Amino acid sequence: MRRIDALLVLMVLIWGANFSVIKHAFTEIPPQPFNALRLILASTVFLIAIRVARRRARQAAGSMPSVFFTPHVLTPRDWRDLLWLGFVGHAVYQFCFVGGVAETSVSNAALIIGSTPVVVAVVSALLGRERIAVWHWFGAAVSLTGLYFVVGRGADFGGATLRGDLLIMISVGCWTAYTLGASRLIARHSPLFVTGMTMAIGGVPYVAATLPRLAATDLSAVSVWIWLSLVLSALLALNVAYLIWYVGVQRLGAARTSMYSNVVPIVAMATAAIFLDEPLSRTKVLGAAAVVTGVLLTRFGRTPTAVPVEE
Q1: Where do the domains of the chain lie?
Q2: Which one-letter DSSP state was computed for residue 30?
Q3: pTM: predicted TM-score of the whole model, two decimal places
Q4: Is pLDDT larger for residue 52 or for residue 125?
């Protein structure tokens, strides 16, 4: 396991545990206002980190790791990319994801989100970003099969959950566009800058749209533990995990990085079993093993197509 793989495992643990954290928080704060507060906090932290990274890079004469700073000047095309990525990858994605989770079952949401790696791989191959090897497709098939046994057997699409299912499907499309659309940007600029700027840009319309509901929420009645959950969810699930995601895309390519998202429902399932007393069957354990095996298989035969920095 390389260092980037270890970081992606950390990302999976954070995002998986985050499901139980926010599910508990929704008992005191409605989903969209809760998410708006998370985005405000996480965006502020990112903008401060970007400023600090720039200052330290000037003091260190440009020897800072590329994860935190790159000296390239922003072009008009860079700004256009930042704007649409922020809107699609944060404003629309967050609205659809949080709204979808609130209106459908965990099984449905996890199964639909589990299709993200395949969607990313197909679109990446069609765009010529990566030449996907046979090992990757085989690993994706094994992983999706395992994911079905983890969460899919209890899924019931349509009916009362149809609106939520459709919102989650839209969020998968937004996440795919966000992941692949930033390939040129992260070849020129640091993952910290790209992630932080797109989150801050996307956070503006998101907070504006949820402001009436946020203003109507009685925040004085929220317990200390829920506030702590909100802060940890913002700092870990948005700041740390999002940064790791784009570092993975930069180092491994979008298709390989996205396969790790298949493991997130497994961690969510295990966390819920421990802290929320949700049942954990033998079938789910075997399905989880298949998902991990599939992810490992996708790490073979990688042939990325590099994007020139000056493009």
Answers
A1: 3-304
A2: -
A3: 0.78
A4: 52
